[in-house]
Design goal:
By secondary structure, the chain is of the alpha/beta class. Helix content is 38%, strand content 17%. The protein has 17 helices and 16 strands. The longest helix is centred in the first third of the chain and has 24 residues.
Length: 457
């Protein structure tokens, strides 16, 4: 199915504003697919390819020679699950003990309780629970729509399972369907900054301020770090996501700031004025409440490349709703379609968190294209993407035909380099892409959150 990967990449590249002839430099290898109701492998391959195409475009803009881009569909699929392979230690469990899918009296609902305040919100509605059996008993007495609304109103995260048809008819589903895959607009003109682009390390010297957390945004900034960007991730005090930190902090420095504290806000203000790229995944109204709406960000940093992520889209009644990949899969009909494909009696998600990963690579592509445009025009970029819109991209491809599944991972799929992390030695899977003359590699190992100072190097 390399042809479908190529066609999907061409469609995504067009949605990102790229020139059609750029996709001629793309090469896909490794037939087969992850087993799924939907074309997850094609989505993985095409989204990674578009991020790589953006790098190739940047190299071409300064060196007048577009390199060939190759994507290994098998490795791309594996990277959508995880890239790190610990040597002699284990990753923390990625899910809170009571997170999961539960049967209501009229359907199914998913509770996302990984963050302590999200679990507390859910338990304000269903009562304090010690285990999944207690949750199941409490949830069974609710209608799915009523419980979803109650938990969301309490500040928590939940999603009723809907079918594709139900989502298409839902006010938020209709709003998402009317949105572009990526809304990209030119903004203010900044000070002239005409820097040389090293074709072997094309993002060297680019400062990326990363305000994102699990999982799409960190995937984007990890990709940018892989081509030389100086990525500084900022988290609030006490935030942690132990199940994924070793996976997504590769190549970055991670600091903490409390953006409600005047002193920390002053530090953030300085960081923002000195950044080239801002990635953020706060809810649509969160930065606005802190005094940093899109207009303020653009005025603070003329020429800023501002790339933002939302869960449920940028319009409609759920614009400000908290959300995650697993919840969007439930809302948008993916888990229901998977249940029918698998002939299961319970929701069946995608084999990987494909909405997160794919959207992350699209964010990276938008950021790199913004860098290229700034070199050409001096103007900044405002780009908006959403997990729910990426879900529509996937479901619009239709059912996946039966395909051979990939061979299992072997030690030969790993990069031989040893990564010295705070938790122990590890290896990474070999990169799923190659760009002639510009190898993807990281200068820093994965690190713990809050392990660096909030300053640029």
């Amino acid at each position: 199915m390399t042809e479908q990967s190529a066609n999907l990449a061409a469609s995504i590249w067009s949605a990102l504003g790229g020139a059609a002839d750029a996709t001629k430099s793309l090469r896909f290898t490794a037939p087969g697919a992850l087993p799924s109701a939907f074309a997850v492998t094609d989505l993985a391959s095409a989204s990674i390819a578009c991020a790589a195409l953006a790098i190739a475009e940047l190299i071409d803009a300064r060196n007048a020679s577009a390199p060939i881009v190759r994507v290994d569909r098998r490795l791309a699929s594996f990277w959508f699950a995880s890239s790190i392979r610990p040597n002699g230690w284990s990753m923390a469990p990625p899910w809170d003990p009571i997170a999961g899918d539960y049967r209501t009296h009229d359907g199914w609902i998913r509770l996302h309780t990984n963050a302590p305040h999200h679990r507390a919100a859910a338990e304000r509605i269903i009562g304090a629970q010690n285990d999944k059996d207690g949750v199941a008993s409490a949830v069974s007495r609710w209608a799915a729509a009523d419980l979803e609304a109650a938990i969301v109103e309490a500040g928590g995260c939940a999603a009723q399972m809907r079918s594709l048809a139900q989502w298409s008819a839902h006010p938020q589903g209709r709003a998402v369907a009317d949105e572009p895959l990526a809304r990209i607009e030119a903004t203010t003109r900044g000070a002239e900054r005409n820097w040389p682009v090293d074709p072997s390390r094309p993002l060297a010297g680019i400062r990326v301020l990363d305000l994102t957390r699990v999982l799409a945004g960190p995937v984007a900034s990890r990709f940018l770090a892989g081509f030389g960007a100086d990525v500084l991730r900022i988290d609030p005090p006490h935030w942690n996501e132990p199940g994924v930190v070793p996976e997504v902090t590769l190549g970055k420095r991670c600091a903490r700031l409390n953006l409600k504290d005047p002193n920390d806000q002053t530090r953030f203000h300085l960081l923002l004025t000195q950044a080239d790229v801002l990635l953020h995944g706060y809810r649509a109204n969160a930065l606005e409440r802190l005094g940093y709406d899109a207009s303020a960000r653009a005025q603070l940093n003329l020429g800023l490349i501002d790339v933002s992520l939302n869960a449920y889209g940028w319009s409609g009644p759920w614009r400000d709703r908290r959300g995650f990949d697993s919840l969007v899969q439930m809302s948008a009909g993916i888990a229901d379609a998977g249940m029918r494909w698998k002939q299961s009696d319970r929701p069946f998600p995608l084999p990987v968190q494909a909405l997160d990963h794919a959207t992350g690579y699209l964010m990276a592509a938008a950021a790199v294209r913004g860098i290229t445009q700034r070199l050409a025009t001096g103007r900044g970029t405002n780009a908006r993407l959403a997990l729910a819109r990426t879900a529509k991209l996937l479901t619009d491809l239709g059912d996946q035909p039966a395909l051979s599944t990939f061979a299992r991972e072997t030690p030969a799929d790993r990069d031989p380099a040893i990564e010295r992390t705070p938790w122990g030695d590890a290896q990474r899977l070999s990169a799923p892409l190659s760009i002639d003359g510009a190898p993807m590699h990281w200068d820093l190992p994965a690190c713990d959150l809050g392990s660096a100072e909030a300053r640029w190097r």
